[in-house]
Here is the input.
Amino acid sequence: MLTKKSAVPAGLPKTTESLCPECLTIIQATIRDDNGKVVMEKSCPKHGKFKDVVWSDTELYLKAERWAKDGVGVTNPAIPKAKQCPFDCGLCDLHLSHTGLANVDLTNRCNLRCPICFANANAAGYVFEPDFDTVVKMLKVLRDERPVPCPAVQFSGGEPTIYPRFLDVIKAAKELGFAQIQVATNGIKFAESLDFCQKASDAGLNTVYLQFDGFRKDIYVRARGRDLLDVKQKVVDNFRKVEHHSSIVLVPTVVKGVNDDQVWPILRYALENMDVIRGVNFQPVAFTGRISNEDLAKGRYTIPDLAKDIERQSKGMIKASDWYPVPAVAPISELWMALYGDSKVTLTTHAHCGMATYMFVRGPDNVIPITRFVDVEPLFDELYELARKAGSKKIKAFSKVKAFSLLRKYLKKDELPDGMSSVQFLKALRGVLSEETKSELAKFSWQMMYVGAMHFMDSYNYDVERVKRCMIHYTTPDGKIIPFCAYNSGPVYRTEVEKRFSVPLAEWRKRHGEEYT
Here is the structure.
């Protein structure tokens, strides 16, 4: 299941397929450099020309592209003879990545009225809420995916914690073998009840993906409809008290001119609460409705914008050069499979979908990204070549020894953070490549903080090549698996799916009352 060189042409300019934001038909687009920024230009015969900044830094765009790799997709596609992405989703045989993380929408009801939300019952006029047995079937579809059964599920919505059998679906996911069970939440239910937090953790919840947009009241009022900062703090406080608690990942939706000044304060808050918070996953806002070209230019916020804002706001503690695209770590999975034989998640998402870095943390003012003391690029290059050569048992044994020697080779001992020995660090990294040293990795991981960004597409920056490589998917009540950016943008499968499996809002209220709709 080795990855291969990406079929997307390298360098700029290049052409791709995109969508007309007005009629959503496939049109050709050009991606090119424009004075140091990467722009997409496209023209629809009916609706004219469109231009959008897809990455605000050409140099960082080309750096990310260097790590592009394609996967092998799925061996049991639901749509075996697809003709055109993104109109034949299922997954189809055009798709080049397996599911790394699946979203399962439990409901489109919510206990908030977020102005920026694209999934709520009041706006839609209907309630989408699959029953428990249907949700279990959706989970089984994910676990039946081959060659890699989906390892991680995130319950989403609406607000998934108000689903009547929320704890039961967590237990069901655990029983089906999901290694990572998450919930994307506004946190209100978790803030209201410590007992609810404990029960969710006991049921098997691993990670709380907590909406967290900053530290000013106006941010929450504008984006979420009410001040929620006290709610967010209460969630952190409650999970700190939970026995064997689930971890928290903060998920800020970043809107230019609204909360882009908050990116470092949010990350610093995570560093101050590392006993509970394990990472921050920033999401630059996507424009799900129509918008003028002028407003689009003013509001577009890209991954390089985020990386540079964090560098500036942190006074250089975390630099833009510390960030790497998701598929950069694919060699680790490749080598694992070569050494141990079992299929493993390989992150072959498009190189421009997201970037991340890991930091070694001694305290909120003593943060050193791992890229400062590990020579990442030659290490990953050599690990990838090693994985491609690992074949016979004799070669495999050699490859394991070779992998450990590469870790030593590319460790910059003179630049290790104070208090970290090379022996300690190498033991931890060996845990990635060895089944015998997982305890060392687990101990070490509590001193690490993940920070990343995933920029989901909208119809203005839509790139079909990104859709084909998406690893964050939705599963639907009829047993289909659909890439995130196809589900929520473009042809908008979400609307079609929810209408087919929904109850009119008036009928729902007649049966259940008006709470949380």
Remarks:
- The mean pLDDT is 90.
